[in-house]
Each structure stands twice: as structure tokens, then as C-alpha cells.
Write a structure and sequence with these properties.
161 residues; mainly alpha; Recoverin, domain 1; 10 helices
Length: 161
């Protein structure tokens, strides 16, 4: 992991790799992330940068690799997936988060975008299935419950995609 992190750094930072921060632009170029529709959110969630740059320290990079490894538990994967899907970082998945989630999964082009009616129906279906307390949002416990019923969750979240 250290060798890979060091190689991703700009050449002038490689000698001090342990104290360097990997720019978000370099993280986004990782082959494992390049096609991931959540790559920007992944950088945001794993970055400890206080300047909003979403750059990664070596420890951040290790955390990211650990969560996406096959050996990470489904609880750990669910924790980070929830934060990745919580686009406004408010601790719940509301209709706007779900809309962003669907748009990431279906693509941003006009041809692949759902109509307003289709989006509304899909979000209604998601909430009917997931919103146990019927408050119009999905909290982490509800998200964990849904994930626990999905045997494919850990398999599809097993590697950077």
C-alpha cells in the first residue's frame, strides 16, 4: 500500500510520502475508482483534510483500502457506504440524497436520467422498503437492516469499483 501511495504522489513529494497528502485528482485516477460513480464521495468520506481539498494522507489511503478489501466486515462496509450515500453529510438519507444516489447509478446524461415521475416513484419504493419508522428518511440503523437482507452487498462492495 505504501509503495502504491508513494507512486501516486507527484514526484517532488515522494521522498516525504508519509507526511504528504495525495491530491484528489490523483486518487480519482486510480483504475479501481476511475469508473466508480461515487469516486468524488469516496474521496470526501475518507479524506481527513481540513481544507476541503479531499486529499488523502497515507492513513486515509490505508483506511480506504481496508474498507474496500474483501476482509472488511459487512458492518464496516455498511458504515462507509452510508456516509458515501449521505451526500449532504447530515446523518440521514433523505429524498435529496436518494435522488443523488439514483442519478449517480443511472448516469447524468439526459438519455439515462429518470423522469420526475419515475424518480418520485423509485424514491417512494425505496422509502417503503427501508424507512421502518416512517419518518421519510433512512437512518443508519434502517440502512444496516436493508443491507443485512442483501447477500450481494458485501460481495459488490468487496473491492474498489
Amino acid at each position: 500500500a505504501y509503495t502504491r501511495f508513494r507512486e501516486l504522489l507527484p514526484a517532488e513529494q515522494r521522498e516525504a510520502a508519509l507526511s504528504a497528502r495525495l491530491p484528489k485528482s490523483c486518487v480519482l485516477e486510480l483504475p479501481e475508482l476511475r469508473a466508480n460513480p461515487f469516486r468524488h464521495r469516496i474521496c470526501h468520506v475518507f479524506s481527513t483534510a481540513e481544507d476541503g481539498s479531499n486529499s488523502l494522507s497515507f492513513e486515509d489511503f490505508l483506511d480506504m483500502l481496508s474498507v474496500f478489501s474483501e476482509s472488511a466486515t459487512s458492518e464496516i462496509k455498511a458504515h462507509y457506504a452510508f456516509h458515501i450515500f449521505d451526500f449532504n453529510d447530515d446523518g440521514i438519507l433523505d429524498t435529496k440524497d436518494l435522488e443523488n444516489l439514483v442519478n449517480c447509478l443511472t448516469g447524468q446524461s439526459e438519455e439515462s436520467r429518470l423522469s420526475d415521475a419515475e424518480m418520485e416513484q423509485l424514491i417512494k419504493n425505496i422509502l417503503e422498503e427501508s424507512d421502518i419508522d416512517k419518518d421519510g428518511t433512512i437512518n443508519f440503523c434502517e440502512f444496516q437492516h436493508v443491507v443485512s437482507r442483501s447477500p450481494d452487498f458485501a460481495r459488490y462492495c468487496g473491492g474498489l469499483r
